[in-house]
């Protein structure tokens, strides 16, 4: 973490906070429960600045708590955020009914992507261009010819849509464990890694949530995956062909990261969802209609 203990103590004094529980560690952050001077529970979030989280503060300000954790204060020197406190012991993944959980995510996503991205946010168009540049060099690393074909098809879909990358404010990582129970609302999103783009690019984390339990276990992977896709696109009011194309873009992005990490095969969920979407809509995917 970039925030040292003296800096954390300085922030506690400056914002009139007192500790209210043990520090929790996440994938790339530390969270300290605190209480504000008026007795309001909150948390201090310390995280290493990165390209992915660079837009978190302007994104949270743009959303202003609508479907997402509320930003209470921010220290630009250390990147530390003071956030409203949610119930970390009650993530959406604790909801047994998967249809209910997926409807919650869909409702939150619909609210989040309704907001236009503020100026200066990283852009999906730039990300798409970079992915297309990297694809030819990455594909040969995959052992399975079918997976190589899938990645090339994903790149073709992105190439067709890249000219209209969208301007909505995307969360980018809204899966079940990034939704927590709250007091102000029953469920709120956390840990956004915002960018400006098409809402179809924001569906993959929800589609992949609890994949083995909610999709594979049904015995009909294609049907279950497409049912989830239809629920999300209906809630967000998306053109399903375009959303399918941008979801293939997320599969492409994940594939490129996997190759970069030295892997020679794709995750089964990526393959299954990509195949399911392509069975329903053979390229080109940029046409209109549902």
Question: Which superfamily, in CATH terms, is the homologous superfamily of the largest domain?
Answer: Aminoglycoside phosphotransferase (APH), C-terminal lobe
What is the number of beta strands? 11
Task: Give me the CATH architecture of the largest domain, please.
Answer: Alpha-Beta Complex
Estimate the mean pLDDT confidence: 93
- Compute the CA-based radius of gyration: 20 Å
What's the CATH topology label of the largest domain?
A: Aminoglycoside 3'-phosphotransferase, Chain: A, domain 2
CATH class identity of the largest domain: Alpha Beta
What is the helix content?
A: 40-55%
Straight-line distance between termini? 46 Å
Order of helices and strands: HEEEEHEEEHHHEEEEHHHHH
- Biggest sheet, open or closed, and with what strands and sense? 6 strands, antiparallel
Shape: globular
Instruction: Count the DSSP helices.
Output: 10
Strand content: 15-25%
Structural class from helices and strands? alpha+beta
Count of spatially separate domains? 2
What does this structure look like?
The structure is a single chain. The chain is an alpha+beta fold and 290 residues long. It is built from ten helices and eleven strands. The protein has helices at 5-14, 56-63, 98-112, 124-138, 145-161, 204-208, 211-214, 221-236, 240-260, 268-280, and strands spanning 18-19, 24-25, 29-35, 41-47, 71-75, 80-84, 87-91, 168-170, 179-181, 187-189, 195-197. The strands form three sheets. Strands 1, 2, 3, 4, 5 and 6 form a six-stranded antiparallel β-sheet that branches. A three-stranded antiparallel β-sheet has the order 7-9-10, with helices on one face. Strand 5 and strand 6 (80-84) form a beta hairpin. The N and C termini lie far apart (46 Å). Residues 285-290 have low confidence and may be disordered.
